[in-house]
Amino acid sequence: MGRTLQNTMINLGLQNACDEAVYQLGLDMEELEEIEEDAGLGNGGLGRLAACFLDSMATLGLAAYGYGIRYEYGIFNQKIRDGWQVEEADDWLRHGNPWEKARPEYMLPVHFYGRVEHSASGAKWVDTQVVLALPYDTPVPGYMNNTVNTMRLWSARAPNDFNLRDFNVGDYIQAVLDRNLAENISRVLYPNDNFFEGKELRLKQEYFVVAATLQDIIRRFKASKFGSTDSVRTVFDSFPDQVAIQLNDTHPAMAIPELMRIFVDIEKLPWDKAWDITRKTFAYTNHTVLPEALERWPVDLVEKLLPRHLQIIYEINQRHLDHIASLFPNDVERLRRMSLVEEGGTKRINMAHLCIVGSHAVNGVAKIHSEIVKTQVFEDFAELEPEKFQNKTNGITPRRWLLLCNPGLAELIAEKIGEDYVRDLSQLTKLHEFVDDDLFIREVAKVKQENKVKFALYLEKEYKVKINPSSMFDVHVKRIHEYKRQLMNCLHIITMYNRIRRDPAKLFVPRTVIIGGKAAPGYHMAKMIIKLINAVAQVVNNDPMVGSKLKVIFLENYRVSLAEKVIPATDLSEQISTAGTEASGTGNMKFMLNGALTIGTMDGANVEMAEEAGEENLFIFGMRVEDVTELDRKGYNAQLYYDRLPELKQAVDQIKSGFFSPKDPNLFNDVVNMLFYHDRFKVFADYEAYVKCQEKVSELYLNSKAWTKMVIRNIAAAGKFSSDRTIKEYARDIWHVEPSDLKIPPPNEPRETGQDKTPNGTAA
């Protein structure tokens, strides 16, 4: 979520008033804003997307709730010591959190372990351990519409009789100390991005948020006029018309068997009725195609922790496979591929398959990704129910990612096309009229230059590094992962360095290359990549032959509040994943909206950015998905490229020989070995095209006017990438609710009385 203060002032239309009031108190608002801690309750794109979606849902007047876990410790703080990443605990609640309100009156029990008893009256889950879920509510204000939605985060609490009620021989002190075991559930965020780690505590977290949330939703449904009771039992027929639940990846997939458990075991609905309601309620968003990221929980772990849920999953699977067998008799291979249970070695539950079978809609997050989902990853399922599969291209909120972080540019745009674009970003197309307006071109360039100077000052103050604000700011910020290919950027830096040294007199367009992002603490290769970047920086930044032509900065502790500073100052945005690996990307959209040009592959939303702006207005290079597939078919041989490209050979040899690690020449052996013998992401295959494309970038940067015109064309084409557009599509195509542009009257104005005037009953 990042910080909340400035975003709240903007959405309430109070920023200028607050700035002025605080100034009159002899304080500086910006200084105050810097004191607030980021809420870092997610890892990367997936968590930030949810935050943008909450802003858009409130702005569109949807009755929507965001549910998650109130981690005591969020994503770790990253320190760089001697070029290595070191993790520190993110004690973000140390000074309290003024935006949250604990709601103990809505506390709910969540059950674990135990066993299942079967009787004539049905199944009962008994002898469980209970953990309490305490909700904390954070307001989510819409933009200037007097709407405030809720983000409800659950915190784990031990019940007061924890470890004291049963056969306890009287070690009271130990029993109280053991309360920590229950409360550890919401202690810390698992720091993996795009990687599955099958730990028991993680599965507990996933079920904890799911079980608490579903009880909350059902309580709310029963309290509404729709939860009509005939005699004693609630009628759930209208449930899917009143409730839509969107599964943000497979992490909340246990919601499917949990809702079935509630309907069948507790509410005593017949299975078929319960399953029909469940499928109509859930929809699933897939966020990655990397096999190592897909959740596959060991059956024995699920059986130990959630025995009833395993039985329900088996029953779902049995009926699912019976259905497929009836359509494709004797196709055992198909049954194996489509099963929710993977045999062979340790039996596992494939959570993506559970989500597909248990949902009425499945979507990818960019056109190209949704195609890959349909034709490759889940092709059997798409063949069975093609109408279930959709695309919903990701977006970003223009409130935080333009108004808040780049007020200079936002104001400049408003002067030209009015202020309405903030709620309807498609209006940015009106900027096409000004692409040849010399004054506007100069003003856009001036805003960018001011942002660069401001960021350079920040870097000097915080990190004691001096950079040249007139150099090109070439920025690569995102989680560190092999598929995102920070290594390819690193090879380009080394290549530029070698070119400067080879011919110091030759004209060179000065660059400051800024790379930032966190590596999962257990991801050895990602940590080596950080060390390599810092080792290269050490050499490049201290070579007198290079001077101010090339500087390399590793940006420590990249997070939302730092993104808000660096993105508006960026000239060149690096989006260079291997085609077919980045589901969408959202940083790409933030840079585009803030006047940076993109160098990128035809991957994720880059494809649609090129479609919107015209491919000639992005620096597109490298293999397309088809080329990668073809290269896989032939077999990728890294040695071929190394032998054919002298500059690549030189760069790799320098890494290999210890040129960047003289004290330990073998330091980067693992990296070099990976690049030659098991590089799934084919860095060498795109190196040549990347370097040539970077030459075109430098050439254009020399012509400031032509560069800025291309920037304006990009901003004018960025309208599609508002999360408002994304949410409207979810609302119409999946949730079946109508967004309302109605501005609720403020509380000080009398409102019309009468019946409930809400046009749409469904809450997402």
TrEMBL record:
One cellular component term from this protein's GO annotations in UniProt: cytoplasm
The coenzyme or cofactor needed here is:
pyridoxal 5'-phosphate
Region annotation (Disordered) ranges: 738-764
Which domain of life does the UniProt lineage start with? Eukaryota
Q: Name one GO biological process term.
A: glycogen catabolic process
User: Phosphoprotein: present as a keyword of the record?
Assistant: yes
Alphabetized UniProt keyword annotations: Allosteric enzyme, Carbohydrate metabolism, Glycogen metabolism, Glycosyltransferase, Phosphoprotein, Pyridoxal phosphate, Transferase
One example of the protein's molecular function in GO is:
glycogen phosphorylase activity
Reaction catalysed by this enzyme: [(1->4)-alpha-D-glucosyl](n) + phosphate = [(1->4)-alpha-D-glucosyl](n-1) + alpha-D-glucose 1-phosphate
* Residues the record lists as N6-(pyridoxal phosphate)lysine modifications: K590
Q: How does it assemble?
A: Homodimer; enzymatically active. Interacts with PPP1R3B; recruits the phosphatase PP1 which dephosphorylates and inactivates PYGL/glycogen phosphorylase.
Q: What does this protein do?
A: Allosteric enzyme that catalyzes the rate-limiting step in glycogen catabolism, the phosphorolytic cleavage of glycogen to produce glucose-1-phosphate, and plays a central role in maintaining cellular and organismal glucose homeostasis.
Official protein name in the record: Alpha-1,4 glucan phosphorylase
Organism source for this protein? Notiomystis cincta
